[in-house]
């Protein structure tokens, strides 16, 4: 929810070459798998972090002195493993991460959440798993839990697949434990995952204000499908608020969000620059949330006072098809602004049953777009209405009305 990490874009990078960094547990000292002396231990390859192609198939952390008892500090083992891989490959690439048990990396984040809430930390907390400047990565068949900060953070990576991954953290009181944060990444697939965490389930990002603009790397060509998400404090799937490098060509489909604050959220602000465009949401089921779809353009958290107030993000071409909700309090809230009008929004086959009959259900400001066929609740008058066959039924009466609440 609160963005603090890597906002300074590439400026914080000190790694000389393309390599990935497994940040796991440098702090939490907890690399967890079942110790090998357990009688029913089997050398099952379950958790796999993979970069290809490689001459050698496996690097087992235990060969480097790693101990998976949930207690031992494995920092040196991680460093030794990466050094060995770098020697063998000429760069720091790890292919398979072999572990027993059912492949869990437990960040034991409680101590970090507590210190964060006490304001007792001087630095940003570490994510559980972080890849930087890498490509051709497959992360599958693994459970990540209790990250001190974000769980999985691919940063400036290309061709990343995340499949059949379970990500868990307490859904309240585990600050910033986002599930997956694709950050300035290209060609990414996230599928078949279960995510229930203390912040956004997924949050697509690309740098913060002037730092993100300078680094200038968008998140693009991302497909997110077949996920179940729960986010009690934030949203199932977010874009932003740090999106200064741009976010483009994202498809989100076959998604189920339950018992959450919000299902779909896009957040930006003046000063971000960049763009959010060509984003498609298809077949999203929403079950018991405060908000269904929320777009805001006043998310005014800035890294410092040096941001460019004239850097206005462009938000354009967002389509929502097959959005089915029940027990939703405020189904749609699209709040563009005079500075950041939202253009090219479309809705098809949207039905969100309300938690209770009430007003304020489809709120719009500074938005231009179209609705097709029947939409429930009745759409705001900012949008042009078409029938199922694409024939114009009624032109919008205003694009700009600010914060009028539309009743049923
Ligand atoms: C597998 O991992 C999950 C999540 O960490 C845990 O709840 C479960 O008990 C584990 N199962 C086994 C057989 O260890
Ligand atoms: C944070 O910085 C202050 C001042 O430099 C220092 O006294 C304190 O020990 C630091 N706290 C931690 C947790 O490093
Ligand atoms: C993407 O990565 C996968 C898995 O590492 C690999 O099999 C595939 O060839 C890569 N695709 C491209 C276009 O490089
Ligand atoms: C998903 O991963 C779990 C281990 O976390 C494994 O037991 C299961 O077979 C995997 N399922 C698929 C379809 O790959
Ligand atoms: C995930 O686990 C399933 C079932 O064990 C296996 O078939 C599949 O190959 C695994 N995925 C990867 C990428 O290893
Ligand atoms: C969707 O993902 C779940 C795991 O979360 C998996 O069991 C199921 O088979 C997937 N469905 C499809 C159609 O791939
Ligand atoms: C929009 O993105 C989709 C993939 O999500 C892509 O197939 C399509 O070509 C893009 N359209 C434009 C106009 O960029
Ligand atoms: C988005 O998709 C379109 C159409 O496939 C492509 O032309 C464009 O380059 C893509 N944008 C990015 C940033 O990859
Ligand atoms: C829509 O998504 C749900 C999962 O949320 C899935 O079960 C269903 O098969 C999807 N429908 C279609 C038409 O793909
Ligand atoms: C948005 O969609 C419209 C209509 O399909 C298209 O003309 C325009 O080029 C798109 N804009 C971007 C930035 O893709
Ligand atoms: C609506 O707002 C846009 C963007 O601020 C502006 O260009 C346009 O003139 C306004 N239209 C009306 C009718 O006020
Ligand atoms: C809405 O869904 C129905 C049934 O799936 C389909 O027949 C219809 O064409 C859809 N309408 C639009 C506007 O996509």
From TrEMBL:
The chain crosses the membrane at residues 15-33. It holds the Pfam family Glyco_hydro_28. One of its GO terms (molecular function) is polygalacturonase activity. GO terms for biological process: carbohydrate metabolic process. It comes from the Eukaryota. Coiled coil: none annotated. Belongs to the glycosyl hydrolase 28 family. This is Pectate lyase superfamily protein domain-containing protein. It comes from Asparagus officinalis (Garden asparagus).
